[in-house]
Write a structure and sequence with these properties.
This protein is 27% helix and 34% strand. The strands form three sheets. Strands 1, 2, 3, 6, 12, 13, 14, 15, 16, 17, 23, 26 and 27 form a 13-stranded antiparallel sheet that branches. Strands 7, 8, 9, 10, 11, 18, 19, 20, 21, 22, 24 and 25 form a twelve-stranded antiparallel sheet that branches. The chain has a two-stranded antiparallel sheet with strand order 4-5. With 489 residues, it is an alpha+beta fold. The two termini are 42 Å apart. Helix 5 crosses helix 10.
Length: 489
């Protein structure tokens, strides 16, 4: 199958995959360079149709403020941009116009990666002087490793695993007119798929203790300070987080394998960004929450607020769901976040098209259930997926309301830059589509140091001790996956 457009030709082959899984394919195809695996469990319970694997990207863009490091076949070089670095990414994508391939997987190539929380300083000028740009020392006097503002791979070759048909789509986008080279790349990928799995590396695991950039006392002091802002009328809510760090020499992809088994979610991802700032950088996560999505001209977001554990049986599940929907505090917080989402979409959608299509729906996941609503609108014809991101970033569910003032308070109270945490993970397709999630329930790995960050929504009647414990509970799922991977179980 061959599609021709102004610049991009998309070549798609389909081969049988009845003996493969997304994990086995990734293990066979990953090499020494950058790579990724994207998977999904729809609605928390049903496996989505496709998993996506990317290897040997055409280029990699590392965003550090207004400096962008470009890695490609010509080597590594740095370019300077004036202002918003996502405009550079948009210009790169504008070089490769494409149209949707009929009957193809929903993602066939484009930019894939993450955008960190502090990137908002380029979208909200009033925050530029307030946001932390590098991580500072933690309370123990140890220097945290800084994470770039974002990293994106230009993925011109994609392997899509079709769970419904038990087949594999090998996809190559011809960006330079050289279809022969693209077909040779697909030949090489197909050949590697036919090979047996490589042997698993054996490592001697050294246990390590978890540290935080807060003590319980300093976190609770931070909550009390935020409550003073709320009582003064500055804000209605703010999300305050802490970061948990530990050392491990476990294979990072083994952590992802544990995560996908222990905590399946709508957005599961593993990124190996290769060597960044002289050491390996990984991102691994299992996020329950969509950030923003663009399909055709329909822009949507899906705020989540309100949580209960799963019940022991169906009757207990139903009772907990009804209790959740009846909780006035949970309802008030959720309504506020839905209103934030409507306002965000209203900035870039055609007048009168923004609507709430699902309101106060309970979605059930492996261990918890959430209140979820769906907000959508029709993107203005002159705007793109990047404009949608700029209007909505970051999500109110990880910042607060009003959003800008909440982010100022976060910058004042939290000791370190958030980095990837509370930013977004996902893709911008060559065809203009986009799908992203919040970077929560996410592990950042730098060398042998891994970190997991978690936050709690602070409101007027918040209990500081309970909010501290909520952050501990939220981080525990990923920390438990690290323990599981180390144990080899």
């Amino acid at each position: 199958m061959l599609l021709e457009s102004t610049t991009v030709k998309t070549i798609i082959r389909e081969i049988s995959a009845d003996l493969e899984t997304p994990v086995s394919l990734y293990l066979k195809l990953r090499g020494d360079g950058a790579s990724f695996l994207l998977e999904s469990v729809e609605g928390g319970e049903r496996i989505a149709r496709y998993s996506f694997i990317g290897v040997q990207p055409r280029a990699e863009y590392i965003l550090r403020g207004e400096e962008i490091e470009i890695k490609d076949e010509r080597g590594s070089r740095t370019t300077h941009v004036n202002g918003d670095p996502t405009r550079f990414l948009q210009n790169e994508m504008d070089r490769f116009p494409a149209v949707r391939v009929p009957n193809a997987p929903r993602f066939t190539g484009g930019l894939v990666g993450f955008l960190g929380f502090e990137s908002v300083r380029f979208f909200e000028p009033t925050l530029k002087s307030r946001m932390k740009r590098t991580e500072r020392s933690d309370p123990n006097g140890e220097r945290s490793r800084s994470v770039p503002d974002g990293i994106y791979m230009l993925a011109d070759t994609i392997v899509a695993f079709d769970h419904a048909r038990r087949s594999i789509f090998l996809i190559a986008n011809v960006l330079d007119g050289n279809a022969e080279a693209a077909n040779q790349k697909l030949d090489a990928i197909e050949s590697r798929i036919q090979q047996p799995l490589p042997p698993a590396p054996k490592k001697e695991i050294t246990p390590s203790n978890v540290k935080s950039n807060h003590t319980q006392g300093t976190y609770e002091d931070m909550v009390r300070s935020a409550k003073e802002n709320i009582l003064a009328g500055d804000i209605f809510q703010v999300v305050l987080s802490q970061r948990f760090t530990r050392e491990t020499n476990v294979e990072p992809f083994d952590v992802y394998r544990a995560v996908r088994r222990l905590n399946p979610s709508p957005y599961m991802f593993f990124f190996d960004f290769g060597i960044v700032d002289s050491e390996p950088l990984y991102l691994c996560g299992s996020s329950p929450e969509m950030f923003v999505r663009l399909e055709g001209r329909t822009a949507s977001l899906r705020p989540i607020a309100g949580t209960r554990p799963r019940g022991a049986d169906n009757a207990a599940d139903d009772a907990l769901a009804q209790e959740l929907l009846a909780d006035p505090k949970e309802r008030a917080e959720h309504v506020m976040l839905v209103d934030l989402g409507r306002n965000d979409l209203g900035r870039v959608c055609e007048y009168g098209t923004v609507r709430v299509s699902d309101f106060f729906t309970v979605e059930k996941y492996s261990h918890v259930m959430h209140i979820v609503s769906h907000v959508e609108g029709k993107l203005k014809p002159e705007l793109t997926a990047f404009d949608l991101v700029r209007a909505a970033f970051p999500a109110g569910t990880v910042s607060g309301a009003p959003k800008v003032r909440a982010m100022e308070i976060i910058a004042d109270l939290e000791p370190d830059a958030r980095g990837a945490y509370a930013g977004m993970v996902g893709y911008f397709g060559f065809d203009g589509a986009m799908d992203t999630c919040l970077a929560i329930r996410t592990m950042v790995g730098r060398g042998n140091t891994v970190s997991v960050q978690a936050g709690a929504g602070i409101v007027a009647d918040s209990n500081p001790t309970a909010e501290f414990q909520e952050t501990v509970n939220k981080a525990s799922a990923i920390l438990r996956a690290i323990d599981t991977a180390e144990a080899g179980s």
